[in-house]
Amino acid sequence: MSTEGKTITCKAAVAWEAGKDLSIETIEVAPPKAHEVRIEIYYTGVCHTDAYTLSGKDPEGAFPIVLGHEGAGIVESVGEGVTSVKVGDHVVALYTPECRECKFCKSNKTNLCGKIRATQGRGVMPDGTSRFTCKGKPLLHFMGTSTFSQFTVVADISVVAITPDAPMDRTCLLGCGITTGYGAATITAGRGGIEEGSNVAVFGAGCVGLSVIQGAVRNGAGKIIVVDVNDSKEEWARKFGATDFVNPMKLPAGTSIQEKLVEMTDGGCDYTFDCTGNVHVMRSALEACHKGWGESIIIGVAAAGQEISTRPFQLVTGRVWKGCAFGGVKGRTQLPSLVADYTEGRLKVDEFITHRQNLAGINQAFQDMKAGDCIRCVVDMRAD
Ligand SMILES: NC(=O)C1=CN([C@@H]2O[C@H](COP(=O)(O)OP(=O)(O)OC[C@H]3O[C@@H](n4cnc5c(N)ncnc54)[C@H](OP(=O)(O)O)[C@@H]3O)[C@@H](O)[C@H]2O)C=CC1
Ligand SMILES: N[C@@H](CCC(=O)N[C@@H](CSC=O)C(=O)NCC(=O)O)C(=O)O
Ligand SMILES: [Zn+2]
Ligand SMILES: [Zn+2]
């Protein structure tokens, strides 16, 4: 029996308040309104940004909310005026939408889209209301995606159809971590990606950092030096193509990580990437850049109230500080080609999955993520 136009009752992991475990609840998901799409979520990854918002440190975090932004599924129904996807399409949800009409979308300098950013940040759909209720109370949406629900509703500009040949328990990861790191190296850095032969340092070898390494390898980087406080990340980093590994905690007394990197690269790195969210690491990453042209790209999300600092002289002498969301990737236009890179063997995705959980085990997925041996945990939303 078709569910089109009807409210769907399903399970979701609800964050009732900051700092508390998610609660598996029965919720109601209203049908999509005009220019909205209802998706049955099959798989979702759990990203550090979900944990960050759940912790209460996100200035935009509000509760109760359905978190999750790394999801893949199948379109169940569409609202009036939706032409970009249809019922039955395999899709990835996009927390960075692409309307193709706003000044950001029309610019080739950014992937940020302004069309629904204000309502997305307030946890509501573009018309200012929620499609989720639980026990008679409305629940907020998260990052325009809310993939911790078996069914979710997103704006039509926040979803992209991909080939049904790609397994959804892998493509969900292209909804955030992998795309972010890979895009940062191949799109955001420099003028459209790292140039061949460039020396690169990647701070933090989690899902995002390992994906930066993949992008650096793809663009023919020279040295790819990984900096991580966790020695077990060396094996991971080398498996993805790193040429060197440095644990900053193990440097001789009096030697800073930036001094070490400058020495290893004859004057500094051409590109450095912060994939930790630690503002002190961000400073080191900037100061490890080569005088005159070195560029440092901030990817990590720092907690509310944290600020970056360095001597302005670092910038006066030609180092550049920049950053990106979702790797600079315009999701509706560019994600299908990343999926092709995966299905045709040019992009590692399977290798990132170290843990799996069912929806009922989603709190364990958050615990798994905090352990040093987890790169990504994929949650099967349809299994109890
Ligand atoms: N801008 C964007 O669009 C996006 C940003 N993010 C953000 O990117 C960041 C990275 O995400 P993810 O890869 O999943 O995170 P992980 O925690 O998996 O990886 C971070 C790695 O950095 C290591 N680390 C921690 N402190 C330091 C330090 N001082 N110096 C060097 N290494 C350190 C960690 O070690 P240990 O394991 O011991 O803690 C870990 O190995 C997060 O802040 C996340 O919120 C994520 C997706 C998109
Ligand atoms: N809400 C936070 C900022 C969180 C943030 O920076 N999110 C990234 C994506 S992180 C994904 O895992 C992002 O897309 N930023 C751009 C944006 O427009 O939100 C805060 O208010 O500090
Ligand atoms: Zn994320
Ligand atoms: Zn736009």
Automatic annotation (TrEMBL):
Annotated keywords: Metal-binding, NAD, Oxidoreductase, Zinc
GO terms under biological process: formaldehyde catabolic process
InterPro entries registered for this protein in UniProt: ADH-like_C (IPR013149), ADH-like_N (IPR013154), ADH_3 (IPR014183), ADH_Zn_CS (IPR002328), GroES-like_sf (IPR011032), NAD(P)-bd_dom_sf (IPR036291)
Segments forming domain Alcohol dehydrogenase-like N-terminal: 34-123
EC numbers for this chain: 1.1.1.284
GO annotations of cellular component type: cytosol
Co-factor requirement: Zn(2+)
GO molecular function: alcohol dehydrogenase (NAD+) activity; S-(hydroxymethyl)glutathione dehydrogenase [NAD(P)+] activity; zinc ion binding
Catalytic activity entry: S-nitrosoglutathione + NADH + H(+) = S-(hydroxysulfenamide)glutathione + NAD(+); S-(hydroxymethyl)glutathione + NAD(+) = S-formylglutathione + NADH + H(+); S-(hydroxymethyl)glutathione + NADP(+) = S-formylglutathione + NADPH + H(+); a primary alcohol + NAD(+) = an aldehyde + NADH + H(+)
Family matches, as SUPFAM superfamilies: GroES-like, NAD(P)-binding Rossmann-fold domains
Family stated for the protein in its record: Belongs to the zinc-containing alcohol dehydrogenase family. Class-III subfamily.
Protein name, as recorded: S-(hydroxymethyl)glutathione dehydrogenase
